[in-house]
Amino acid sequence: MAEKPKVALYWCASCGGCEEAVVDLAEAILDVVAAVDIVFWPVALDFKVSDVEALPDKAIAVSFINGAVRLSEQKEMVELLRRKSQLVVAFGSCSHLGGIPGLANLWDKASIFDWSYSKAPSMEPGATTRPMTKIQVPEGELELPEFWDTVKSLNQVIDVDYYLPGCPPTPKLIANAVQAILTGKLPPKGAVLAGTKALCSECDLNETKPDKLLIQDIKRVTEVQLDLKKCYLAQGVLCMGPVTRSGCEALCINGGMPCTGCFGPVQESPDYGGKALSFVASIVDLEDPARAQEVLAKVADPTGIFYRYSLPTSKLGRKKMPRRK
Amino acid sequence: MQVVRTVKYEEELDAGFTNQVASEPGGDAIWNCLQCGTCSAICPVSIYMDKTPRRIIGLIRGGFRDEVLGSLSIWICTSCYACTVECPQQIRITDIMYIAKRMAMKESQYQRFVVPAVEEAFVKMVRKNGRLTESRMGIKVVRKSGLRSGVAMFPIAWRLMRKHRMSLLHVERMQDPASLRAVLDALEPRHAPTAPAAAPSRAAGA
Amino acid sequence: MTGYLYYPGCSLKGSGAPYEKSLLAVFSALGQELKEIPDWNCCGATAYLSVDQDMAVAMAARNLAIAEKLDGQDVVAPCSGCYLSLAKAKATLAEYPDVRARVTAALGKASLPYEGRVAVRHPLEVLLTDVGPEVLKKRVTRPLKNLRVAPYYGCAILRPYPGVPSPQAPHSLEDLCRVVGATPVDYPNKARCCGGMLTAGVQSVGLRLVEILLCEAKAADVDAVVTTCPLCQYNLEVYQERICKAKGKDVRLPILYFTQLLGMAFGLDDHALGMDQLLRVPLVAPCAGVKA
Amino acid sequence: MNPPAEAPRIGVFVCDCGFNILGVVDVPAVVKFAAALPGVVHAEEYKYMCSDPGQDLIKKAVQEHGLNRVVVASCSPTLHERTFRRVVSEAGINPFLFNMVNIREGVSWVTEDKVQATEKAESLIDAGVRRVTLQEPLEARSEPVNPNVLVIGGGIAGMHASLSLANANRGAKVHLVERQPSIGGNMARFDKTFPTLDCASCILTPKMTEVKIHPNIRLHSYSEVVSVDGYVGNFDVTIEHKPRYINEDLCIGCLKCIEACVFKDARFPNEFDLGLAKRKPIYIPFPQAVPTKVLIDPHDCLYLRLGTCKKTCIDACEKDAIDLEQKPDRVSLKVGTIVVATGFKPFDARRKPQYGYGVLPNVYTALEMERFLSPTGPTEGVPLLQDGRKPETVGIIHCVGSRDKNTNEYCSKVCCMYSLKLAHLIKERTGAEVYNFYIDMRTPGKGYEEFYERLLSEGLKVIRGRVAEVTKAALTRAEKDHLIIRAEDTLAGFVRRIPVDMVVLAVGLEPQSDTQELRRMLNLSCGHEGFLQELHPKLAPVSTATDGIFIAGACQGPKDIPETVAQAGAAASEALSLIHRGVVEIQPYTAVVNEELCSGCKVCIGMCPYDAIGYDEEKRVVHVTEVKCKGCGVCAAACPTGAMDQQHFRKELVMAEIAGVI
């Protein structure tokens, strides 16, 4: 029996949902486990970094890495895995585009620490504790990883072969990706392993979208009783379907929530948030500029909505912070 | 009957006057005036003015600085804004009257007319107490406008006092008038560099 | 955030005392809180604007800044003159960045940041739109039937920052009269100036304007003129005797505040409404039946 | 996008434009710079590139250097793009492989700084060269023109345009659509017309009859256009005929049914008389109406409102023309061109409450006064007060709703003249003293000033001052029971109060209230005052931004009858010229969809101002109707995925151009 291909899974700055998604493969995971040899999966199995370091370079067939990169330790780990792997797959929105943690690029380390350790309401007001990278204890010097000013996507740190988008990627896409890797039927390097068109193309509600999609008001999901059989955009609720890559089969929409764009932009669009912004501006149909402003102002937190998953990989990248002394 | 020469030579006019008025808040639309006379016609007191509001606008546009600042009209204006609302060109005529009043005050370009004098007294009192005491103000008005009007006002004052709507003793004032003065003082130095030395700012006892 | 902030202005603390009394009584009868702005200052009136624009705006804006510092509720300014000064200052600060820069800097010296967040309202509009005619009608216990009233708005709350709807053809006072059961007469000069400060400055002119208004009301055979402004009320009320004497015609008429009219219909006590402070005791004949 | 088939061989031609460009830009340095750019094989300068020698120079260079792309750096493309495209085309290169760079209006005319000007010219040429490298050859296409014409609006403009078109005798139909039951428009309401004072009916009625009997005109009265699709030369139109409850083909206009109606008295306001006179539920709008057919107002008719009536009208009709069950009926037409002549709406005088219209008695609008003065009007030609007396004094207030930033800022142009006309007629019929209150008396036009002088010599009182208010609050005995007009006599310098018996408000002209819907249906644009917008105020005054649609009369802006008729003739001639040519050329700047990328999200459909994008239900992608597309690029900008692109303005081209500039 030929040696089973070695597989590693790792997480960086992420919520853990991507790990859940792997577990959510349900019975299919047994097939995967039978087909591969998992050599590193800190969430589930007890392997040490030294085990990985001990492997020869390129010994791992594929590493699935989820989460954005924002700590020096994460950088070290992904560089290690890159060295040891033939293929690296950025797994999930955070790794692919920067993800929700990427919204931290609206601040920097100092302002984040300021809030988290001093200003946020606390049981212990006035505490001044701040994480340090080095501390002396009787047993010797302890070291903690460095926290970066800027969150990065995986491809901003190491070379990435494929991307599995989604928050998290759907079981079907994961299974397809594993299948493709196992059978060697791989698309060109750099491909996003999902649909090529935007989500509307596979959304059932697209049929109900009026030919002239123009809205007079913007509503939040909490403000309306959504008609689940009618295109949400036509009901004034911002759905990012038109801007977002397909492949999820309109999972959220079928579940009664509009698309928030976790699959990111289609290949040809350079900046997800910019396109999303121009798309929303396009469909708001108001003659009176004052009223239009009023309605557009109802898009609470535009950065958070239009760049929810992709700030680090957008043309903006991050907010420019004032120079600190 | 005296014969007067009315021709105006260009050098007697102030070419910059119009721009000066137009650059003040509310004066910007003055160029749009059609001279239609709606302002004069709707004004409840234009019939008492030496120059109707329409003429005042026309004079400002022509650079007739002295004629405007020396006119009675600007002091007759009751600031009821009827002209401003009715003007088909949306010229803020009331605001322009105020602009002219302020210029006249600053340049002492007004006859010893009772209205500007009363307004100065008002400003002084408000600056001191932060608020206005009507009875004290009344006395000042009477002093400015002469004994006869004072006699005429006496029965009115007496009746108001009996109804507890006026008192000679009570002074209406803020708890802390200094807090207002701090704000006003902060605005004071603005005038210092621009005001000509010969015409000290009349804006209330600096 | 409930209720309103209350900006009385100087007149309501003096000759306009009946206005303040009736206003507070009516609002409290309706369960609407009016909280006086602490240590308010004069709005600047017309006089300050004739002397210095920035200071005039700053005077008014200081009151608005204090209101902002509190809960930022709407500011109710019953005196039409104050209403106009405050509204105009707010508009000037919004429209002219230079003025705003200078005035906010000056207010900053007194630690009063100004953002222009509070709305300036006139109580007539508050009563008819926020409270609403239906609620007012329900509270009426003594409908003022048989009472003919001349609705007189004066100038300041109609323009140019209208404190009541339809400034060209206002009907708020008429609506209010109907709410209390009284009959508003057609009063063509209802938006004409009362003479304002000219009754003090240039009396011959001021009194002529008063005379026209009173004659017209008299010709319409009304029982009272209803006003919304302490200066209008004062001008129309205190010069009646003098005009009678000078012109040889009877122009004597009760001049009421609209809040007094409302208070009467609510069945509030005459003293609480400051009725006894009016120079001309009103409405003896038409209200005799009601009072009994 | 495919890379260009052959390697680019670009020629750059820099124009001195006399001293216009040369005076500020260092042209020799620019030429040197251009020659060194990638793809450029030839660069030269010339004094006037647009001149014949300049054009020859380009052609010669194309031959000599084997150029396949050309950049000309000179003036604005609006001036000479056409010229140079022709030149390039004559030299054997596809005209869309040419690019024009503006270094005059955009550079030399806007600065005196020679160094910066030269730098800017260089970077613009760099951008132009990068762009032309990626440009693709394109072909303009042509389409046939349907000879039928739709004319919307049956006032004097629409009637005149229809007759001009119909008289060309092309064997095609003119479809004239009028929403009122009769054609004639506002002009039919007038008694006389200025400045000649000839009778409006006398000149209008023959035209109305001609429209009715003309074999080439199909009149759709009491009808509205409900939809227009298609494009120049090929419009699909749907018209709805509103039910008259009378079979139009059978009715002979004998009016016996009106006589027989169960309502013995006329009691409903007559629309034609603006409510000043009354009619029955079954009526004809006015005696000379065309078509002379009766109609029933379903809101007034007992049977149609309540379902019960003796229906005496049916018994009275000998032709069995009455059909109380009639329903709206739609017809579809194909036309090649459209003339819009929907006219104006008089300003609503209630919007100026200070003049008391609708509140004070004896205050009327000018149009109402026209009816009073008409022999067929409510008072048979003599204006009367509400109490039946003749007025002794009448005030005519000019500029009601015009020249007023609070309502309409523009001058309505016709009010001064019609006010003078009304003054003359009122004086003539009643002997009243008439005052005209005006801001400026505007009487330019043939015979107009003479008319003004005539009125002055007739003793018309003119006061130069805009009226502030009309009130009934009298201050003197003479004012009692009068309307008092308050205005400043600005020439005398006094405020005056003038008591009059009657007030006439010279209301201005406004766009029809449904102009916006019309604009959307036809894809036209409106000026900021709301009138339909012409393509060019001087050089294309009756054309619109939509090819094949022309405008005439007051729908384009206030104008009097002579000017309206002239415009109607012009619109007809523009339409005829298109019809005669027979084909239309379509610019190839159209949008194209990459179906591989299109997700069918439909955002572009709502954005397209020309209705050029449709959705393919089968393929679930959008498609562009090339002939409708104007190449505005809105869809390409709005497309959330980059599936939509515009020919000649593809993203790569624009990005390349930007890269050259920065």
Blueprint of the fold:
The complex is a heterotetramer of chains A (325), B (206), C (292) and D (662).
Chain A: E1 6-11, H1 17-23, H2 27-35, E2 37-40, H3 49-54, E3 60-66, E4 69-71, H4 72-84, E5 85-91, H5 93-97, H6 109-119, E6 134-137, E7 140-143, E8 147-152, E9 162-164, H7 171-183, H8 251-254, H9 272-283, H10 289-296, H11 302-306
Parallel strand pairs in A: 1-2, 1-3, 3-5, 5-9
Antiparallel strand pairs in A: 4-8, 6-7
Chain B: H1 17-22, H2 38-42, H3 53-62, H4 65-69, H5 73-76, H6 82-86, H7 93-106, H8 114-129, H9 134-145, H10 147-162, H11 177-187, H12 191-194
Helix pairs in contact in B: 8-9, 9-10
Chain D: E1 10-15, H1 19-22, H2 27-35, E2 40-46, H3 52-65, E3 69-74, H4 77-90, E4 98-102, H5 114-134, E5 141-144, E6 149-152, H6 156-167, E7 174-177, E8 192-193, E9 198-199, H7 200-213, E10 217-220, E11 223-231, E12 234-241, H8 256-260, E13 268-269, E14 278-279, E15 282-283, E16 295-296, H9 302-306, H10 312-316, E17 329-335, E18 337-340, E19 344-346, E20 363-365, H11 366-373, E21 393-400, H12 415-430, E22 433-438, H13 448-457, E23 461-464, E24 467-471, E25 483-489, E26 494-500, E27 502-507, E28 509-511, H14 515-522, E29 549-551, H15 561-581, E30 583-586, E31 591-593, H16 603-607, E32 613-616, E33 621-624, H17 634-638, E34 644-646, H18 651-661
Parallel strand pairs in D: 1-2, 1-3, 3-4, 6-7, 6-18, 7-10, 18-29, 20-27, 21-22, 21-27, 22-23
Antiparallel strand pairs in D: 5-30, 8-9, 11-12, 12-17, 13-14, 15-16, 19-28, 24-25, 25-26, 31-34, 32-33
Task: Characterize the structure shown.
The complex is a heterotetramer of chains A (325), B (206), C (292) and D (662). Chain A has helices at 17-23, 27-35, 49-54, 72-84, 93-97, 109-119, 171-183, 251-254, 272-283, 289-296, 302-306, and strands at residues 6-11, 37-40, 60-66, 69-71, 85-91, 134-137, 140-143, 147-152, 162-164. By secondary structure, chain A is of the alpha/beta class. In chain A, 38% of the residues are buried. The mean pLDDT of chain A is 91. Chain B is mainly α and 206 residues long. Chain B folds into two domains: 11-106, Fumarate Reductase Iron-sulfur Protein, Chain B, domain 2, CATH 1.10.1060; 114-185, no CATH class. In chain B, 52% of the residues lie in helices and 0% in strands. Chain B contains twelve helices and no strands. The longest helix of chain B has 16 residues, at 114-129. The model of chain B is unreliable at 191-206 (pLDDT under 50). Chain C is built from 15 helices and eight strands. In chain C, the strands form two sheets. Chain C has a four-stranded parallel beta sheet with strand order 2-1-3-4. A four-stranded parallel beta sheet of chain C has the order 6-5-7-8, sandwiched between helices. In chain C, helix 4 (53-69) crosses helix 5 (80-95) and helix 4 (53-69) crosses helix 6 (97-109). Mean pLDDT of chain C is 91; it is low at 284-292. Chain A binds chain D through residues 196-201, 206, 209-214, 241-243, 246, 265-266, 268-269, 275-276, 278-279, 282-283, 285, and chain D through 596-603, 605-607, 614-615, 620, 634, 637-638, 640-643.
